[in-house]
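Journal club side-thread
Mid-discussion, someone asked how the predicted structure for our own chain would compare to the paper's figures. Pasting it here so we can look after the session.
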Amino acid sequence: MCGIIGYIGVEEKATNMIMEGLSKLEYRGYDSAGIAIFTPSGICVEKTKGKLVNLADHLAQIGFPQGYAGIGHTRWATHGEPSDVNAHPHWSQDHSVVVVHNGIIENYAQLREELIAAGDTFLSDTDTEIIPHIIARYYREDKDPVQAISRAIQRMRGSYALGIMFADRPGELYAARKDSPLIVGLGQNENYIASDIPAVLAHTRDVYLLEDYDIAILNTEEIRIVDLEGNPVHREIFHVTWDVASAEKGGFPHFMLKEIHEQPHVVRETLASRLQENMDAPKMDDLGISKEVLDGLERIYMVACGTAYHAAMVGKYLIERVARLSTIVETASEFRYRDPIIDEKTLVIVVSQSGETADTLAALRMSKQAGAKVLGIVNVVGSSISREADYVFYTWAGPEIAVASTKAYSCQLAAMYLLTAHFALLRGKMTPQEFHDLKGDLIGLPAKIGEILKKEEEIKAIVDSVDPLNVFYVGRGLDYYTGMEGSLKLKEIAYLHSEAYAAGELKHGPIAMIEPGTLVIGIVTQKSLIEKTVSNLKEVKARGAQVLCITTEDADLALIQSVADQMITIPDCNWMFTSLLANIPQQLLAYYMSVKKGYDVDKPRNLAKSVTVE
C-alpha cells in the first residue's frame, strides 16, 4: 500500500519525474497524493485528496515549479480519513523537515502526546506527522541529519519506509526503512528512491534493495548507505532484467486483462526453471529439502494471506493426498498470534506475491526464531521474504500491476505442483514413471490455458446475461478451493457479495440464502465427486438459483447439463491441475463483471497491491 518516489538530479525536472513515478505506483492503491519540491525559495508542498489526476490538475493550475529534488507520495488511509490535510508529505512544526511515509507507527499516540507536551502542534490525524516533528527535534540538537533520523526511528515502533528532506540541505535526499519495501535507484547525475521498481524502471535498471534499519543518503553524485550508528553498509547492486514494456498495458484496456493473457507464458517460465526433459525429478536442489529433512519433520505449515492463502490450500490438499505429508494451512494474521507449535522439526512454507506482505513476513521471522526452516514461495527477487527465508522458490510471473492477483496465483499453483512431486518422489509415494507422465501433463498446461483464453467472448456473453445480487461458489475437494479464489476475485473488483462453500455444507445453513435470481457457480472438475456435486446443485436449482458450471470437456456433460443453465468447459487434464485451469474462467468472469459495472478494474477501492501493514 502507498507509493513513495524521490528524485535528485542536476536538471530542473523533479516535479515531472516524481509525478511520472507516482503514476507508475497507482496500482498499489491510494486515496490521496502529494509532492514536495526543493525550489530556490525553499521546499514547496502541495497535496490533494483523490486520484493523482487531481494533484496534477492542481499543480498545473497554480504553476507549480520543477526544482532539482523532491519527494512524492500516494496515500492509502489508515490513520485519519482521506483528505488534503491527512495526505503526505508532512512537515515538522518549524518547517525544517518534510517526510513521506509508508507503514504504520504503532506507538504514535504516545510520541504525539510527548511532543504536544513539549509544545508541538499537529495539523493532521495521521501517525506519520509525528515523524518529521521528532526528526526535527533531534536535528535541532546536533545538526546531523543521519543522527537525527537514527534517533527518531529508534523511538518508533512499527513499520516504515521513509523519504526525507531537510530544508537547509537542498543537495541531499534521505531514505530509511523497516518492514516496508524501499529501493534506491542509481542514475547518471541523478538518483532515486521508490517503493517499487516500476516507478524508476524507465530511468535505471540498477537499484539497491534497502534492508531493515538502513539509512540512505543521496545526492547527484553518490549514494551512501549507513546503519543506525552511521557506519557504512555494503549492499549489492540489483540489476533489473525485465523491461519497461512488462509493466505497461501492451494494448490491453487494463493491466488485469493483460496479466490474465500472460498466464501461458509465465506458467511456462515457472515450470521451465524446474523441469528438464532428461530429468526424472524436478530440479529442486537449491531448496535444501532432502529425504532426510522430510523424514525429520513432525509438521509442515503453509502460511499466507488472500489469494496466496488459496494457493496454499491447494498445496496442502496435494501434498497430503499425493506425498502423504500432514500439512496445516493458516492465514498469516492468525498464525502469528495463536502461539503455534514451531521448532526445529517444523517446515514453514510462506507464500507471497510481493514478498513484503507484513503478516506473512512476521510469521517467517517468528518461525525462524523458534528454530524452524522457512521456504518462501515469492514472485519478487530481492524482496524481504526472498532475503530472509532459508530457501526460496521463485514464481517467474514478472511484474504484476493490477491489484487483483491473477498470473502470480497461477504461478503459485505451478510451484505447488512441483513441490508436491518433489516431496512425493523423495518419500517414495510417486514412481519415476508416474513423474514422467505427470511432467508431460505439466508441460502441456500453458497450451491448455491458451485454449481457455480463446473462450473470452463466450465468458463475456455469460456475464452480460446475468445481473446477480448474490453469488455462491460451490465445489468439493480441489473444486472448493478453486471456488474460494473465484469468490474473492468477484468481491475484489466487482464488489459483489460472494461466498464459497464446500458443496456438502450447503444444507448446513447456506442454502437458506438461496432465492430466485441467486447465481450459483458450480466447480465440477473432480470426476469422482461429480455426482455428489450435481446433487447439491439440483437442490439450489430447485430453489430458483441460476446455475453456471465450470467443468472439464471429458466429464459427464449430459449429467451436468441436467442442472446447469450455462456451462464453461476447460480442457481435460490430470486431476491435480484442475484448480489452475478452472480458475482462468473465474478470472475472466470477475473481470468482465467489473467492466460491466463500470468499476476501476486495476485499482479496486480500499485495496492495495502490497499489504505492508497489519
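Post-session note: DSSP finds 20 helices and 24 strands in the chain.
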